[in-house]
Amino acid sequence: MGQVKNAAEQNKVVDEIIQLRTEFESMMRIVSTRHTIDTTDEFYKKEQDYFDEWSPVYQGLIHKYYETLVQSPYRSELES
Length: 80
What we know:
The protein is mainly α and about 80 residues long. The protein has a domain at about 45-80. About 80% of the residues lie in helices and about 0% in strands. It is built from three helices and no strands. It has helices at about 5-35, 40-70, 75-80. The two termini are about 20 Å apart.
């Protein structure tokens, strides 16, 4: 986010990140639900294993994202 030139550009990036997060987290919930329904389904077992492995990495990236937002020179404009 350090490459944006103003609050409007940063807001656009934030919107894009929200869309990506929504898609990723929706897939994660679907996999979890389907794996819970049938834990013998090999496909969803592998998918669940994938999310189990990468969720901590994802959460770390989300944490860094929020840290970056808090430090943004456009923070007050983004908050309003």
